Write a sequence for this structure.
């Protein structure tokens, strides 16, 4: 992966530096930016690789930056870092084409996995079709209530909001949510959102 550069966008200098240090320790080249505008100003000259951005930044947030990059024709895959309260924003970002998102605080190994997967995401069409068929088969095994909870989760609803929408208790939503994660073989919320989006695009 030495030919790739990971472009790190975050107005929080300690977070920016710690992500850069973690990746550099794995021989992954990095370049840092203190905000969305700094990256956009050199968007025409970005080295091949991917972009890691915080979702909450002054002046322009990560989602707005992703939309600007698309308008500029920049095809770099993007990983979004998000606080727990920003899940609905992260879902919007994934619908806008973001490759992955991680909730803070995250494990260093989780970030490395996301970066490696993003940098090598060009799988064959056959393997993509098989993955999609597997996801569809797992989704078909969900009960009607589990599917409702699945849809609420990927819409960015909190457990409380989903409970109000579905007329059940937050604790019951938690139980259904755990069942959905298990049945869909999802290790994280971002995986579950990605599966939902793949099913939408079929």
């Amino acid at each position: 992966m030495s030919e790739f550069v990971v472009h790190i966008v975050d107005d929080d200098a300690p977070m920016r530096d710690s992500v850069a240090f973690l990746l550099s320790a794995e021989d992954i080249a990095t370049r840092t930016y203190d905000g969305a505008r700094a990256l956009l100003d050199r968007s025409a000259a970005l080295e091949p690789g991917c972009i890691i951005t915080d979702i909450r930044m002054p002046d322009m947030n990560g989602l707005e930056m992703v939309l600007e990059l698309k308008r500029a024709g920049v095809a770099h895959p993007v990983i979004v870092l998000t606080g727990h309260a920003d899940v609905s924003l992260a879902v919007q970002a994934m619908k806008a084409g973001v490759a992955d998102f991680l909730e803070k605080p995250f494990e260093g190994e989780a970030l490395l996995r996301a970066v490696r997967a993003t940098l090598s995401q060009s799988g064959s069409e056959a393997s993509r079709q098989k993955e999609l068929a597997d996801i569809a088969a797992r989704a078909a095994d969900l009960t009607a209530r589990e599917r409702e909870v699945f849809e609420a989760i990927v819409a960015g609803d909190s457990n409380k909001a989903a409970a109000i929408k579905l007329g059940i208790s937050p604790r019951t939503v938690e139980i259904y949510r755990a069942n959905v994660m298990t049945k869909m073989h999802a290790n994280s919320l971002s995986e579950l959102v990605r599966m939902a989006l793949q099913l939408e695009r079929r």
Summary: Residues 5-119 form a domain with the Rossmann fold fold (CATH 3.40.50.2300).
